[in-house]
Structure formats: structure tokens, C-alpha cells
Amino acid sequence: MSAATENGPLRWGVVGPGRIGRTVMSELLLLPDAELTAVCSRSRDRAAAFAADLEVPEGRQRPEPVTVTSVEELLPLVDVVYVATPHLQHPEAVLPALQAGVPVLCEKAVAARMSDAQRMVDAAREHRTLFMEAMWMRFNPLHRLLVDELLEGIGPIRRITADLSVHRDHDPDDRLWDPARGGGTLLDLGVYPVSFVQWLLGTPLSVAVHGERAHDVDASATLLLRYPEGNAAQVSCSFRAVGTNGATVVGERGRVVIDPMMYKPHRIEVDRAGEHSQVHVAVPGGELGGRGYTPMLMHFQELVRSGATESPVMPLDDTLAVMRILTDALDELGVSYPSSAG
């Protein structure tokens, strides 16, 4: 972090000016102590158009970021790098940034293969540089309340079910159906329920998967995760179905139901000791508003300013554990991806 920004706004650079990058950087503009300084894309025209498409909060001036075509050009200009390229391209941006000592927030799933995830985590630890997977679900106010308070009332967790399924017709031009760009339902949708289960139960003893491989990607998958003492979790994701998109956590003395949208809930229902209650939150993004990314962005900025090298909410070992589950499931379904660069 530069001396100029030690007490001023953090300078962010984004690699990959696509839809998710535009959404998250629009939410960054809700933070008064952050600014979008640079945009990196192989297409300078696409990078230049990025700022014009941002949703700018009332009272905030539209940013005019520098446009660059390489990560090497980007790094001297920023304090933080946000990587929003397709999964297979993550190492190309993440590794140079970590080697240069620049903190990185990387989109989930953090990689398309376990080997890439391990390389990036190893680099973060070797260079003692902050690296965090952008699993914004873990920072949702209701999820924080669930973990900090509500689960205690239902006793030890015995079973979890979680689903995220959205019907999506096959389109060969769609990244989500393209194996060369890390397509498939597990990396796009399944990462949410898998991360949710791993957050609450940890690393499973074993993973069994049943699903459909179509057009060289996983079109649907159901995972059974086995844990000690007979505890288990079932995770499902699909491009072939319209799912419940909720989650249920069953404990010895009660249960918690997150429905709908398990990754950005507005409501959680709690049943325990014969009592039923509901907890609501009006704005998933917390006090600053937005679609739900601001709590994660605020957390990451606090880590950068404090000099931390790892998040206690989304630690690196959790990122690796989630990636291991996803990789095992993809291997069992016979889905493979090209070797990544970086």
C-alpha cells in the first residue's frame, strides 16, 4: 500500500471487465474509502467501456480509471487487485500480483483445478501477501448471524441439504457451457452450497457424486458428503432444473431453513424446542446497501489496511478444502479442463 493511500482511499484495479467485475466494482463505489483506479483487459476498448457501464451511487463521481492490457502494467498503479476473469485464467493475474506483494481478491471458484488453487495459495504464503476468495455469501448479515448465534440453539449439526439450480439452455457461445473457459455447474453454482457446507461442517471424510456430463461440462451434480458420527450433507446444482435454491441445517434440537436464495438470504426460519421464529434483513448488503457484496469488500479493505495476510472468515485452508471437493466431483463426472496459464 502506498504512502499516499495509507490514510486515503484504497486504489483498486480490476482484471477482467465482464459482468461480475462490473457488478462488484459498482458496489465498491458505495465504499467512501475505495476508488477504482485501473482496469485491465486484453481489449483496451473493452477496458475503456467498463467505467461507463458501472452503476454509480448518487453523489459519487463516475470513476475514470486508467486502462491497461497487462497485469504488469496494472500492478504499480494500485493497492489491491480484484480478479474477475474466467476460472482458468485466474493464475495469470493472481500469481504476478502476489509475487509483487499486492493483495488479491479473486472470484470464486478460485480455480478450475486443485493444482491451480494450490499454486496460488502457496504463492500467497510464500510472499506473505493477502489472498482471499470472493465468497461474498459468508459475509451476508444473516449468514453471520447464523454462524455467530442461531446455530448454537439447534445443537450439534447432523445433516445439511443445500441446492442452487438454475435452468440454462445449452448455448455453445455461453461461457458456462464452454469447457475451454471453465464452464459447468459446479464451478459456477455448486461452489456456493459446497462452501456453505464446508464452512459449517469442515472437510468431509468422503464425497460421492451423481450427475450429468453434457457438452464436455457438468450440466448437473448431486454430491453426498460424509462426515464423522454418521453426519452428512447433500449438495445439488444444475443447469437442467429450477431448484429450491435454499438450504436446511438440521441439528439435534432444531433446524434452520434458509429459503429462498441460500447465498443471499433475506430471511432465515428457526425451529427449536417447539418454537418457530423468523429473522429478516432488509438489505443483504448491510448499512451501505447494494446487492450483497459490500460487507465482503469492507472486510477485505480492513484486512489490507491492517496488514493481514489471510481472512479469518474465508481462510485459505477453506478455499483449498472447497476446491478439493469440487475437483473430486468433477473427476468422478469425467470433466476435465485445459491446462491453465500463469
Walk me through what this model shows.
There is one protein chain. The protein has 342 residues and is of the alpha/beta class. The protein has helices at 19-28, 44-50, 71-74, 90-99, 114-126, 141-148, 185-201, 294-306, 316-333, and strands at residues 10-15, 34-40, 66-68, 80-83, 104-106, 131-133, 157-165, 206-214, 217-226, 232-238, 247-251, 254-258, 267-272, 275-280. The protein folds into two domains: 10-135 and 293-314, Rossmann fold (3-Layer(aba) Sandwich), CATH 3.40.50; 137-287 and 321-333, Dihydrodipicolinate Reductase, domain 2 (2-Layer Sandwich), CATH 3.30.360. The strands form two sheets. It has an eight-stranded mixed sheet with strand order 8-9-10-7-11-12-13-14, covered by helices on one side. A six-stranded parallel sheet has the order 3-2-1-4-5-6, with helices on both faces. A hairpin with a 2-residue loop joins strand 11 and strand 12 (254-258). Helix 5 (114-126) packs antiparallel against helix 9 and helix 7 (185-201) packs across helix 9. It starts with 9 loop residues before the first strand and ends in a 9-residue tail after the last helix. The mean pLDDT is 92.
